[in-house]
Fold this protein.
Amino acid sequence: MRKDRKEALQLRSLGKSYSEIKKFLGVPKSTLSDWLRKIHWSKRIKHILAEKAKEKNTIRLRNLNKIRGKHLARLYREARNEAKKEFEYFKLYPIFISGLTIYWGEGDKLSRYIIKVANTDPRMIRVFVKFLHEICGIPKKAIRAYILLYPDLDPNKCKDFWIRKSGLSTKNFNKCVVIQGRHKTKRIPYGVCYVSFGSTYLKEKMRVWLTLLSKELIKRILICGSSSVVERFVANEKVAGSIPVSRSALP
């Protein structure tokens, strides 16, 4: 067994993240993933690290509700700094990237504090709910939802559908909103589901995450557009210690 692989196993057994091991040994995260992703106790450590990150994030969001006035500017700076560190950790998580891209394409960008997504696809809504709950650490009971309907749709039937498909419960849903427009017949079978959560602190983080994600994607496009297959593989190993796009392993 390679010496650095043995050392990586020892560091992982001490509860170190891939980023920490990479910094200590200089081994790419993609290599660490190949070494560690199938080991049972390593999977357990990954789960523990994710839970710790989620718990920390949840506490930060909750504590902000108690702070007002001049201290907010300082806290928003901290939010931006936290977001940069969190992006480096979570960017290898499919649910993190999926949630961000859903918000990027379908989310409300105008509100100062509401994180809201609307869609007719229940899979998209369910993924975004998982993003809010598992990545952002938001309790499901704090997530709000409502359904936009055409007049001829059955509100109870539509609500039951979205409860089954979204991963939320009846308590999450407010009263349905009926569209009073020119077209009074259903154009979509179960209406449009809106999912939201209010937090200026998280909204600030979302802005930073989206900026970093766009830069990451542009960087990868430039690499892939100007290199051979072999060069792209080598570049993927070197760029920010990230794994190739085709791999699904998480840190």
Notes: The chain has ten helices and four strands. Residues 200-225 form the longest helix (26 residues). Confidence is low (pLDDT under 50) at residues 240-251.
